[in-house]
């Protein structure tokens, strides 16, 4: 039986210190693979590097998201409006949690990798 975690901060902390190992583009969402944990982003993430901001459909977006492969997550935080993953190279990936940015009921699903602990935002 799977368990949805009520303390979202706890499951987000599973990402801290983990390396992004793969990025998988699916038809209408993206998967971020972290040495076990798997994050499905149903709202396209924004990549922030220095003064640059990369959004889906824009030039260099997929390259910049994939450039995070091999980087370690320094911190994983959430506010009411977005989830932010800050990486060891100084970049960050931001996923909107706002209702108006969603195409369905979920913005993010994070699984701990065992399938036993997960959370949906």
Word description of this protein:
With 121 residues, the protein is mostly beta strands. The protein has one domain (3-120). Helix content is 10%, strand content 40%. It is built from 2 helices and 11 strands, in the order E-H-E-E-E-E-E-H-E-E-E-E-E. It has helices at residues 8-13, 61-66; strands at residues 3-4, 22-26, 29-33, 38-41, 46-49, 52-54, 73-78, 82-87, 92-96, 108-111, 117-120. A hairpin with a 5-residue loop joins strand 10 and strand 11.
What structural keywords apply?
about 120 residues; mainly beta; 6-stranded mixed sheet; 2 helices; disordered N terminus
Q: Which helices and strands, and how do they pair?
A:
Elements: E1 3-4, H1 8-13, E2 22-26, E3 29-33, E4 38-41, E5 46-49, E6 52-54, H2 61-66, E7 73-78, E8 82-87, E9 92-96, E10 108-111, E11 117-120
Parallel strand pairs: 1-11
Antiparallel strand pairs: 2-3, 3-4, 4-10, 5-6, 5-9, 7-8, 8-9, 10-11
């Amino acid at each position: 039986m799977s368990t949805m975690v009520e303390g979202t901060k706890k499951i987000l902390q599973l990402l801290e210190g983990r390396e992004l190992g793969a990025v998988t583009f699916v038809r209408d969402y993206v998967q971020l693979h972290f040495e076990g944990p798997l994050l499905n982003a149903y709202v396209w993430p924004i990549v922030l590097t220095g003064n640059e901001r990369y959004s889906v459909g824009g030039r260099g977006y997929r390259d910049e998201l994939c450039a995070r492969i091999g980087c370690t997550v320094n911190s994983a935080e959430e506010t009411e409006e977005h989830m932010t993953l800050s990486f060891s190279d100084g970049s960050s990936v931001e996923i909107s949690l706002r209702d108006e940015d969603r195409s369905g009921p979920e913005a993010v699903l994070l699984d701990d990798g065992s399938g036993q602990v997960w959370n949906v935002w």
